[in-house]
Design goal:
- The protein is of the alpha+beta class.
- Helix content is 27%, strand content 43%.
- The protein is built from 2 helices and 17 strands.
- A 6-stranded antiparallel β-barrel has the order 6-7-10-11-9-8.
- Strand 12 and strand 13 form a beta hairpin.
- The protein is globular and about 60 Å long.
- It starts with a helix and ends with a strand.
Length: 304
Amino acid sequence: MNYLNQELKKLSKNNMGKSFNPFKNTILSLLTLAVVFTSCSNNDETIETENFTQDTTEVKRSAEIDQIDNILGDLVIDAYEAQEATADRSGVSTNGSDSYAKDIPECVTITVVAQQNYREVTLDFGAEGCEINGHIIQGQIVFDYTRNTEAQQIMINYNLVDFYFDAKNVIASRSILKELSNSNGNPQFTHDLSITVIWPNGVQASREGTRIREWVEGFGSGVFSDNVFEITGNWTATFVNGNMHTYEVLMPLRREVVCNYFVSGSFDVQRTNFGGVFDFGEGECDNQATFTFNNGTEIPVTLN
């Protein structure tokens, strides 16, 4: 080693060491590129991970809107069916409070205003709120319709008044078209999905579209809790940051009223530079789902 060091010193003194500069520069350049490449690669991975996280967060928020839609639909349909059953038994529906709907808790005050065939029904959950299926609901749902025992279709219009679902402010004025019998011989409800949800932290999302709810089990049993619906349709969700998602049901979403979540079914989600399939599984009542990105990456999703 001492001999080698002495020779290197001699070369340096004779300026011959200059011939090593290109080699040194090349090594330094490669090292610099490696650092830059690694840094860029790490940044890209970070950005991609952040995008995936944000994208799936928005999809999960959309799933929360699904929960709200489901329970809103359950409440309106249950109260409507109960009101119609009462009218059918007595031949008339009278004005008053505390009308009866079997599967709506007693903490909800139901008031009916009847004028000839016109009905206005108010579901009042109170300022303090009422627990329904594990969710705290506050405010009112007010819906109206015109009775026609011979009509094949009935339009039910409803508004939300100072309405909160688990502290999320929900703003909507919507309609449900009831068909007595669809092509399968089942009752069917076509829901207008116009709704805005504002989370407690200020995040906001709006939804537009149509959802068709086919009543496939439990119709006519007199007990709403044994009912099962299959849901199809398409809609868009727009978030306050400008992101817009489009949704289309691929496999009918199975809604069992006794479960807070869809138990099966899937829908396609697309957004610029992002997309995939959200799948609720094969029939278990749980808060677990999966999201498969367009590139094949699959991640588990836990619903709130």
